Amino acid sequence: MAVLTALRAAIASPRGAPSAAILALAVTAAIAAPWLAPYPYAEQNLAGAMMEPSAAHLLGTDEFGRDLLSRIIYGARVSLGVAVTAISLSVMIGLVLGAVAGYLGGWVDRVLMAIADVTWSFPEILIALVLIAILGPGLSSAGIAITIGYLAQFARLTRSQIIALKRETYVEAAISIGSGHVHVLARHLIPNALTPVIVAGMLAVGDAIILEATLGFFGLGAQPPLPSWGALMSSGVAQIYLAPWVILFPGLVIAVTVIAINLFGDALIDALAIRNRLKDR
Amino acid sequence: MSDTILRFDGVSRDFSSQKGFFGGKRTMRAVDSLTLDVPRGKVTGVVGESGCGKSTLARLALHLLKPTAGHVCFEGNDLAGLTPAALRRQRRHMQMVFQDPYSSINPRFTIRDAVMEPFQVHGVRHTRAEAKDKAARFLEMAGLDPQLAERYPQQLSGGQKQRVGIARALALEPDLIVLDEPTASLDVSIQAQIIALLADLKTRLGLTYLFISHDLGLVRYFCDRIVVMYLGAAVEILPSTDAPHRHPYTRTLMDSAFLPDPERRKTVTAMTGEIPSAFERPPGCAFAPRCSLASSRCYAEKPVLLTTERHPVACHHPLD
Amino acid sequence: MSLLTVQDLSVAIGLLPLLDRVSFSLERGEVLGLVGESGSGKSLTAMALMGLLPLIGGRITSGRVSFDGIDLTRLPEAEYRTLRGQRIALISQNPMTSLDPILTVGAQIDQASRIHAGLSPKAARARSLDLMRQLRIPEAAAVHGHYPHQLSGGMKQRIVIAMALAGDPDLIIADEPTTALDVTIQAQIIQILCDLVAERGLALLLITHDMGVVAQACHRVSVLYAGRGAETGPVRDIFARPRHPYTKALIGCIPQEGQAPGSLVGIPGMVPAALAYPKGCRYHPRCAIAAPDCRTDVPTGSIVDASGAVAFCHHPLEAGHV
């Protein structure tokens, strides 16, 4: 399959190799957190609060004496988990809406795209804040906010792919042999539109991590004691002079992960040669 | 069973384009009140230059485009009057081979998937072994090595892809196949192979063809009847390939087709004027600006396709 | 001496040899048809003559190209630049991509005159209008101010021809100049090109895949197959007595007037890819009369006719064989 070849080429490329390694590490941390973390993430030890990085606590401890490394590892589970789940949902819903709009055209298209344009014209963070004001703070609210915030992007991208593909002769050929709408969409249009949408989704995971961290930072995402990277940074603000590592390490982890996602996505775009197809994003 | 398999009855098709955001709509008439019978078991050729509406005609024939006015009847049934489900069933009997073999097969499909897709669409189920046999049979019918079934379209040459397109069109055992410039993007040696294949399939399977082409020489070789189109309208219907032409445009087409014979060079007379825009149709004969025989009547009054003593021709001053 | 002599020209792109010892010559006032299917090397030959091979990573590996006594294979790029446009002009297949969409067509012809003939803006304009009239462009003065998108395909190709003529070249290379055009327009353009050759004593190398165009327009023809010459000679003799089985088959691919139904068969198989060229004569897998030596030995050109026709075939067809 072309996608597998491209994935392999992206992993082998100079940009792709280090970023793929970092992403593999982050994903492993998220999946295997209970086995990798040296301490339970919520275990307090007030006697050992705000300790500098040491052999016992590689990244030090926070104001409750919780091991920061363990919290970051568990935080990967929360931050990546929310970002990936929310974006996957967003991609799936966006794909269906965009495909229907692009395929049917007419008023369905106009209504769906008018809604998409309105949501698109506000920054994702604003949409998220409004939704959280309605739903109340919490991890699931943050997830729903991310899903809806990025929906327009995927719907628009899918729609533009579908409109371009609709003109391909093989689509006309499929209709001429008597195919119905569902067959044309499911067998011809969506499979050929999928690749750029999925890559865009992958890149959006990076943005979603930052959005989730921002919400977490303001206390609107994961609620204590559940650690998310943004919440960890938030708790570090108060100790920024006494224990700077509490804000520094989560911040670094976010930055490195997001950069790795973008670099790897970029390498993948080149390997798949779909840069021009993503410009409608 | 009637002798006419497909009938166009006063069929017109408009396309409109928005002129800017606030501008009004511009309407272009691609096919203009066309009446035409396609006789069963024959090859009806449609010839004309780009923009004459021949590709629109092909799509109207299969109801891939809906007519703006008039009726397209297949086996006596008005296609516009069918429910979507009935239309899909009807499509088993009428198939199309497309001009561009390069984009007529989904790049994600294997050749077998492409040939077997019609069965899938119509809910005919096959076991893996049956599908393999059946695909092999249709590929062989189209003159292809059945071993190509595992390949993807990118791995095939243009001629091979066009044969796949023919195999796919044959799969549902149709009565009518619309051939939309099936050889226009192929080399001459491959073009001749494909035409020979189509001729052979027609006799073996008793097919009816509607053959769309810009190549008069090819149409005269392959077709039983020739419909000459100019700017959306049929200007002459030649009942046989050796019938003497009567429309000045048909003569221009004949004079423009070079024969592979240096002893019979054509004298090309300079032609003034351009094909009028389909957006702004002149009131009279569309060919008048380029016609050496045009009179004032030709600019004022639109000639209709009249069955004269010999054959239908739409001209105020037909040639003898 | 001929205006253009191509002798044993071989061209490779990277390590891949694509053109193998192709030879032909062209006189002033003559139209030579270079014919072949896609993959035969016709367009590559045009690029080699224009010195444009470096653009596609190609180079001449051996052979001689002499134009009016100048050896083009050794010409430095700076001198080639003065030759292109002024003495050798190229008309390409797609007039849509040969014209700059943001300049009026008149300005583009003017520019060609000014660069190649060193004319003043005013003189250039007068000359452009004159050229446009010669090419039977109606209302030349109005068309001069039009942009390419306002013109039809046939009109655009006439503008491209006018640009080619602006430098008053000795040789025009026309690479499938009518393929993108309708038949009636094709006939007009071919007629214009033939008239130019007759009136101005130009030499025209007409690259085409259409044997009908060759029969109509050319004095002599050179047939290429899979990067090699197949047959070359005067058009009348080649069409009357093709000696190479490929030439005969190629002519037979076009339906003749009144040809019996079912008699058009084409050529079995297809042109091989450059990586899979067969040994011996490259046509032998498709040839009806291939013999054992065709599979092993590369045929050399031999004169087969009093007219000077040359066929690259071990078993040229006899005159009566047709």
Structural commentary:
- The complex is a heterotrimer of chains A (281), B (320) and C (322).
- Chain A has 281 residues and is mainly alpha-helical.
- Chain A contains 11 helices and no strands.
- Chain A has one domain (2-40, 59-278): MetI-like (MetI-like fold).
- Chain B has 320 residues and is α/β, with parallel strands linked by helices.
- Chain B has a 6-stranded mixed beta sheet with strand order 6-7-8-3-9-10, with helices on both faces. Chain B has a 4-stranded antiparallel beta sheet with strand order 2-1-4-5.
- In chain B, helix 3 (111-121) packs parallel to helix 5, helix 4 crosses helix 5 (158-170) and helix 5 (158-170) packs parallel to helix 6.
- The mean pLDDT of chain B is 89.
- Chain C contains 12 helices and 12 strands.
- In chain C, a hairpin with a 2-residue loop joins strand 9 and strand 10 (228-234).
- The mean pLDDT of chain C is 89.
- Chains in contact: A-B, B-C.
- Chains B and C meet through helix 6, helix 7 and helix 8 of B and helix 8, helix 9, helix 10 and helix 11 of C.
- Chain C: GO terms for molecular function: ATP binding; ATP hydrolysis activity.
List the helices and strands and how they pair.
The complex is a heterotrimer of chains A (281), B (320) and C (322).
Chain A: H1 2-12, H2 16-31, H3 33-36, H4 68-104, H5 106-120, H6 124-135, H7 139-166, H8 169-176, H9 181-217, H10 229-237, H11 245-272
Helix pairs in contact in A: 1-2, 1-11, 2-4, 2-11, 4-5, 4-7, 4-9, 5-7, 6-7, 7-9, 8-9, 9-10, 9-11, 10-11
Chain B: E1 4-18, E2 25-39, E3 43-47, H1 54-61, E4 69-74, E5 77-78, H2 84-90, E6 94-97, H3 111-121, H4 128-141, H5 158-170, E7 176-180, H6 188-205, E8 208-213, H7 216-222, E9 225-230, E10 233-238, H8 248-256, H9 296-300, E11 306-307, E12 312-313
Parallel strand pairs in B: 3-8, 3-9, 6-7, 7-8
Antiparallel strand pairs in B: 1-2, 1-4, 4-5, 9-10, 11-12
Chain C: E1 4-13, E2 16-26, E3 31-35, H1 42-49, E4 58-67, E5 70-71, H2 77-83, E6 88-91, H3 95-98, H4 105-117, H5 121-134, H6 140-144, H7 153-166, E7 171-175, H8 183-200, E8 203-208, H9 211-217, E9 220-225, E10 228-234, H10 235-240, H11 245-252, H12 292-296, E11 302-303, E12 310-311
Helix pairs in contact in C: 4-5, 4-7, 5-7
